[in-house]
Amino acid sequence: MKTTKHLLGSRVKELRKMRGFSQEQLADLVDVDPKYVSFIECGRNAPSLETMEKIAIALQVEIRDLFEFQHLQAGGVKEEELEQLLAGADEEKRKTLLKIIRAVVR
Questions:
Q1: pLDDT band at residue 77, thresholds of 50, 70 and 90?
Q2: Which of 64, 53, 61 is closest to 30 using CA atoms?
Q3: C-alpha to C-alpha distance for 32 and 37, rounded to whole angstroms
Q4: Phi, psi of 104, rounded to the nearest 5 degrees
Q5: Is the dihedral angle over the CA atoms 11, 13, 15, 17 positive or is it negative?
Q6: CB 51 within 8 A of CB 44
Q7: How far apart are alpha carbons 26 and 86 in whole angstroms?
Q8: Predicted local confidence at residue 51, as pLDDT
Q9: In principle, which of 3, 40, 47, 93 could form an S-S bond with 51, CB 3.0–4.6 Å?
Q10: Helix-helix angle 91-105:79-87, to 10 degrees
Q11: Other C-beta atoms lying within 10 Å of the C-beta of residue 79
Q12: What is the C-alpha to C-alpha distance for residues 4 and 56, in angstroms, rounded to an integer?
């Protein structure tokens, strides 16, 4: 089982890549050394709250989004989770989700 530190690092890496940033670019935005970003992403270091706030701002997410890493844990996504998300979505969102799922699965 991965530690929270490792999961947080994996999530930061995932979000960084989604934004198309290199570690160096994120480091510049957060005003830290690029090695420190690497250490965070591999789970060697846990960022301070202040650094997490800067990372969240740079990645254009809320701090809580840095801790959305259930999909990174062993066991992955469960059908119940998908059902709950779908149950809360309106018709338009369901159509959009279906398009996304079809694009990914094909």
A1: low
A2: 53
A3: 7
A4: -75, -40
A5: negative
A6: no
A7: 33
A8: 97
A9: 47
A10: 150
A11: 7
A12: 17
Question: What predicted TM-score, i.e. pTM, was given to this entire model?
Answer: 0.68
Cα–Cα distance for residue pair 79/47, rounded to 1 Å: 32
Q: What is the pLDDT of residues 51-76, one digit of tens each?
A: 999 999 999 999 999 998 777 766 66
Q: Give the DSSP letter of residue 100.
A: H
Q: How big is the chain, counted in residues?
A: 106
Average predicted confidence (pLDDT) for the chain: 88
Question: By the 8 A CB rule, do 15 and 65 touch?
Answer: yes
Residues 6+ apart with CB under 8 A from 70: 77, 81
HEC readout, 2-42: CCHHHHHHHHHHHHHHHHCCCHHHHHHHHCCCHHHHHHHHC
